[in-house]
Amino acid sequence: MRAATPAANTHARVSVLVGLLAAAAVPLGVALAAYSSRVDLTYAAAAIPVAAGLGAVAVALARRGRRHSQITLGRVGGRTSSRVGLALGMLGLYLAAMALLAIGFFGLLLLFD
User: Fold this and answer.
1) In a domain, 3, yes or no
2) Angle in degrees, 0-180, between the axes of helices 47-71 and 79-111, rounded to the nearest 10
3) pTM of the shown model
4) Least CB-packed of 13, 38, 45, 59 within 10 Å?
5) Model confidence pLDDT, tens digit, residues 22-46
6) Which domain holds residue 73?
7) Does residue 92 fall inside a structural domain?
């Protein structure tokens, strides 16, 4: 009698998707500002909290996916997906932090101009 196959590690897979969205939020905001006459670069700063929030969610999901894989002794898989999701989530957080610093310094330059 064969044991039922365990369910796939959905937390790890979703962390990759959310991590991709987090990593793409800031570059998409900057591209929108570059190619649109209606959106200024300072309005593209709305992508910063989006990237930070999605990055935090991706990191949490990746940690949960990795923990689920460890609990099941690797039977559900998802170890590589959770690593990729963690890296993309951290990239999204990094891009959000760098964009926040850039907008802050830009504001200081405008203040003392």
Assistant:
1) no
2) 160
3) 0.86
4) 38
5) 999 999 999 999 998 888 888 888 9
6) 10-111
7) yes
d(CA 16, CA 8): 14
Structure token pair of residue 108: 């200081």
Look at residue 77 and tell me whether its pLDDT is greater than 80.
no
Pull the structure tokens for residue 14. 């979703």
Alpha helices in the chain (DSSP H): 10-35, 47-71, 79-111
Give pLDDT tens digits for 45-58. Answer: 899 999 999 999 99
Q: Is the pLDDT of residue 90 over 70?
A: yes
Q: Does some domain include residue 55?
A: yes
Q: Say what the pLDDT of residue 54 is.
A: 98
Among 88, 87, 84, 79, residue whose Cα is nearest residue 9: 79
> How many domains in the chain?
1
Query: Is there a domain that residue 41 lies in?
Result: yes
Positive or negative: CA dihedral 44, 46, 48, 52:
negative
